[in-house]
From TrEMBL:
Family matches, as PROSITE patterns: PROKAR_LIPOPROTEIN
InterPro entries: N1-like (IPR000026), Ribonuclease/ribotoxin (IPR016191)
Annotated organism of origin: Streptomyces roseicoloratus
Gene3D superfamilies tied to this protein: Microbial ribonucleases
Chain spans, region Disordered: 46-84
Secretion signal span: 1-32
Comp. bias (Low complexity): 46-64
Keyword Signal found: yes
Entry protein name: Ribonuclease domain-containing protein
Pfam families documented for this protein: Ribonuclease
Presence of keyword Hydrolase: yes
UniProtKB keywords: Hydrolase, Nuclease, Signal
């Protein structure tokens, strides 16, 4: 029994090693930090491996070409075009709460690296209710210390930067 468990552990470890090597594109473990194309490829491979589906593009089909912010390079969405639940969450953020979920206002670590890289603790996340949902669902608002605001409706796989209605 112990031998079987050890073999299984080694097999899983070897599989993980091969998977990570495939993500980085080399056997040395370099992650391509600073290479946006490598980061995008890595995110797409990781998403496919974990969900079986290709990663969603950070661009929404509703976004016209060229509508990306210079600060983040992400597509934009006007605040007025957000779902009503997202606008409610934004109002709560501006008011300072109270928030309906215990995790609202906690640090968003940006593990997916879709948002611009910043130091730990820079971003905070807030839940956007999903009508009919029984849990927190996939929709979030993420804010940065300098006032930037991002919206995701696919649990961090893609983001759009929220712009004031007059900014677009």
């Amino acid at each position: 029994m112990i031998l079987r468990s050890a073999r299984l552990g080694l097999t899983l470890l070897a599989g993980l090693s091969l998977f990570l090597t495939g993500l980085t594109g080399c056997s040395g473990g370099a992650t391509g930090a600073g290479d946006p194309a490598a980061t995008t490829r890595t995110a797409a491979v990781a998403s496919t491996a974990t969900s079986g589906l290709p990663a969603a593009s950070s661009r929404s089909s509703a976004d016209p070409p060229g509508r990306r912010t210079p600060s983040s390079g992400l597509p934009t969405v006007r605040e007025a075009d957000l779902p009503p639940e997202a606008r409610t969450t934004l109002a709560l953020i501006r008011k300072g709460g109270p928030f309906p979920y215990a995790k609202d206002g906690t640090v968003f670590s940006n593990f997916e690296r879709v948002l611009p890289r910043r130091e730990r603790g820079y971003y905070r996340e807030y839940t956007v209710r999903t009508p009919g949902g029984r849990d927190r669902g996939p929709r979030r608002i993420v804010t940065g210390r300098q006032g930037e605001t991002y919206y995701t409706d696919d649990h961090y796989r893609s983001f759009r930067e929220v712009v004031a209605d007059e900014d677009r």
